[in-house]
Write a structure and sequence with these properties.
Two copies of one chain form a homodimer. Chain A is an alpha/beta fold. Chain A has 14 helices and eleven strands. Chain A has helices at 4-9, 22-30, 45-58, 80-84, 89-101, 122-132, 149-157, 169-177, 199-210, 224-232, 255-263, 286-292, 304-318, 342-363; strands spanning 15-19, 34-38, 64-68, 139-142, 161-166, 182-186, 192-193, 215-218, 237-240, 269-272, 280-283. Chain A starts with a helix and ends in a 6-residue tail after the last helix. Chains A, B: Pfam families: NMO.
Chain lengths: 369, 369
C-alpha cells in the first residue's frame, strides 16, 4: 500500500496509527505502518522523554511521529492555576453531585489524578516539543488548529513533516496557508474532536482544497475495506485511532472499559463537549448525558472543561464506575469485537484491503491480481 | 460497473438514481443506470399513471423502479381529515406567524397546495401501488420501514424486487426478516430521512448484517470516487438522490432554489424534523432553524408535521422566499456547483469511477487497466 507520502516517510503501508500508548505506536511502526504517539496525556517533559527513549529502542529504526494539541495563540502564557480560577463554582458542584449520585469514591490519599489534559495549554505543548525535537521523529501532528509559525519553521529545519487535523475544506485551506505538509481530514464518524461532515464527503473535498498537499482520511476507518474506500476518495493514506484501543498492547487501565468498548455498537457513541469543551466523539455514558442535558449547566469552553473534569475522569476510571466510564472512540467501535494484537489488526487491515481491491477491480471489469 | 444485482436487473451500471422527476428517472435509465421515481408527491393515482405512461415512452425499454413511503401499519385507514384534526392550534399559529414574519403571501385564490406529502398515509401509498403494479416496474423501494407482508408478496408474484432503506444494521436485519430483496444503507450524510451512522461505517455493517442480500450504499455519493468507495465497502451498487436535483432535466419550479443548491457548501445542511416529523437532512434555512429552536413548539410526529407544513412549503416555493426556501439534500450539495444534464452527470460518474479504480490499483501495486 504505497503512496508518495508513504515513500517519503519510508514506510511500507500508508497506514497511520494514532495512539496514546508507546507499545501500540511502536508495534504499528514495526508492522510496516507509521505509529503516531499522542502526547496530550504527558504533563511532565521527563515522562515524554522516557517514553520516546522506549520508542527508540522498540521501533527497530522504523519511522514514527508525535501528536500534540496546540491551539495556536489560545490562552498564551496562562498557567494552569490561572485557567483553573476561571471555572465557576456551580460547575464544580455539578461534577461533585454527579460523582456522588453514582457513588464514586475520591482518589486514594496521595494518588494524583493520572488523567490531566493540561497538554491543551500552550506552554505544556511547547515543553513537549522541546523534548520531542531531540528525537528523530518524522512527523509532528497537531490535533487542533494550525501549529504556530515558529513551530512549523522549527519542524521544517529538522526535516520533520507537520500534519494538522481538519474537519472542513475551509479549515484545511487555513492549514495549507500556515505551511503545513499533510492534512488529516477527520470525518464526523471519527473518535475525538470532529466536525459534522462525514468522511465520504469530507475526504475528496479536502483533497481538492489543498491539492497538491497529501491528505490522510480519518474517521470511520477500521478495516481494509474502509482503507480502500479512503484511498479511492483521493487520500494518500489513512489515519486510524480507535481500532488500537482494544489491542492487547493497549493499556486502558480498566478491564471494564475494554469490555464496554468490545460490547458497544456503532450507535453507542455521541459527539459531546463533556470531555474537553469542544465536540468530541466518545462512548455515550451517563457522564456525557449529564453534560449534554439541556437542564444541566452545559460544558465550559476549552480548556476549562478539560481541567474541570480531569480528576472526575480519573476517579471514574480508578473505580471503574460502569455507567460513567467512557473514552473517545469513533463509530467503528461497533466492529471492535475482540482483542487482537497490533500485528493481527495490521494483517487483517492489509488482507481486507487486498480483498476490497479485488472486488472493485472485478466490478470495474478488470482482471484481478 | 457490473455486480450480481445490476446483472439481475439488466442494467449496465450499478448506479441507482432516486428522483421525484420522471424526466430525470428516464434519463438515468437511458444512460445505463437504474432510475427510481419517487412517488410520495403524487396524491391522485391518475397523476402517477400519467407519469408512468410517460416513463414507458421515454425509457426505451430500459428497466426502472418506483419509490413509495409506506410506514408499515401506521395510521392505518385514517383519512387525511382525521389526521389533520390531531394538529394542535398552537402549531398552526406558529406556522402562520413564521410566514407572516417573512412576508410570505398566501397562495393565489383557487391554486391548490402543490406540495402535499400525503403519500406518507398508508391508503395513499396503497392506491399508488395499485397503479404501479400495472406497469413493468422492476424494483419497488420503500423509504420508511419494511413494506407490509401483503405488498412484499404482491411484488414477488410480479417479479418485482423489493428494496427498503435502513439507517442501522438492526433496521436492515428487520427488513431481511420481512423478506425484502435489497437493502439501501442510508448513511448520516444522505439527504432525506437518515440516522446517525455515517456511510463509511454503515455500509459494511449492513452488508455483514444481511449477507447474502445485496446492499446499495446511499449517502455522500455524488462522484465516481465516492462510487468506488461505496463499492469497496461491500455494496453491490450505489443509490444517489441529491446529485440529480441540479440537473437540467430536474424541475424544482424555482430558479432561486436551484441557485441556493448550487451555492451551498457541505456544511449548509442540517438533520431536522421540520419537514416530516422525522430527522431528514435538508438545506439549513430560517424554516428549519425555527423548528429546531429549543424555544419553539418543536416538530410534530410523522405524519402530522408533513401535513402541518405542506401548504407553507408550497407558499415558500411559490413566492421563492429566499430565507425559508429549502429542500431535502445531502452533504454532497457542496459539490453540486453547476447545472449538467443527467447524461453529463452520468459520464462524470463513470469516468471518475475508472480513475478511482486506477488510483487504488496503483496504490495496491497492481498494473492499471
Amino acid at each position: 500500500m504505497e503512496t508518495e507520502l508513504s515513500k517519503r516517510l519510508g514506510v511500507e503501508h500508508a497506514i497511520f496509527g494514532f495512539t496514546p500508548f508507546p507499545a501500540v505506536a511502536a508495534a504499528i511502526s514495526r508492522a510496516g505502518g507509521f505509529g503516531v504517539l499522542g502526547a496530550v496525556r504527558y504533563t511532565a517533559p521527563g515522562d515524554l522523554a522516557r517514553d520516546l527513549d522506549w520508542m527508540q529502542e522498540h521501533t527497530g529504526g522504523r519511522p514514527y511521529g508525535l501528536d500534540v494539541v496546540m491551539p495556536a495563540g489560545r490562552a498564551e502564557g496562562a498557567t494552569e492555576a490561572e485557567v483553573e480560577a476561571m471555572i465557576p463554582d456551580g460547575h464544580r458542584r455539578f461534577v461533585e453531585e454527579l460523582l456522588t449520585a453514582h457513588g464514586v469514591p475520591p482518589l486514594p490519599a496521595g494518588e494524583a489524578s493520572g488523567w490531566r489534559i493540561t497538554g491543551w495549554l500552550e506552554h505544556v505543548a511547547r515543553s513537549q516539543l522541546d523534548v520531542a525535537f531531540d528525537y528523530p521523529i518524522r512527523l509532528l501532528a497537531n490535533a487542533l488548529g494550525s501549529p504556530p509559525p515558529d513551530v512549523v519553521a522549527r519542524a521544517r529545519d529538522r526535516g520533520v513533516l507537520v500534519a494538522a487535523l481538519a474537519g472542513s475544506a475551509a479549515h484545511a485551506r487555513r492549514h495549507a496557508e500556515a505551511g503545513i505538509d499533510v492534512v488529516v481530514a477527520q470525518g464526523y464518524e471519527a473518535g475525538g474532536h470532529t466536525g459534522e461532515i462525514a468522511s465520504m464527503v469530507l475526504t475528496p473535498e479536502v483533497v481538492d482544497a489543498v491539492r497538491p498537499l497529501p491528505v490522510l482520511a480519518a474517521g470511520g476507518i477500521g478495516s481494509g475495506e474502509q482503507i480502500a474506500a479512503g484511498l479511492a476518495l483521493g487520500a494518500q493514506g489513512v489515519w486510524l485511532g480507535s481500532i488500537w484501543l482494544t489491542t492487547t498492547e493497549a493499556d486502558l487501565h480498566s478491564r471494564a472499559l475494554t469490555a464496554k468498548l468490545l460490547a458497544a455498537g456503532s450507535g453507542d457513541t455521541v459527539r459531546s463537549r463533556a470531555l474537553t469543551g469542544k465536540p468530541a466523539r466518545q462512548l455515550r455514558t451517563a457522564f456525557t448525558d449529564a453534560w449534554d442535558d439541556p437542564g444541566g449547566p452545559g460544558a465550559l469552553p476549552m480548556p476549562l472543561q478539560g481541567l474541570l473534569v480531569a480528576e472526575a475522569v480519573s476517579r471514574i476510571q480508578k473505580w471503574e464506575t460502569e455507567p460513567l466510564l467512557g473514552t473517545p472512540v469513533g463509530q467503528i467501535v461497533g466492529r471492535m469485537t475482540s482483542e487482537r494484537s497490533v500485528r493481527q489488526v495490521f494483517d487483517d487491515l492489509t488482507r481486507g484491503f487486498e480483498r476490497a481491491v479485488d472486488r472493485v477491480q472485478r466490478i470495474a471489469g478488470r482482471s484481478g491480481s
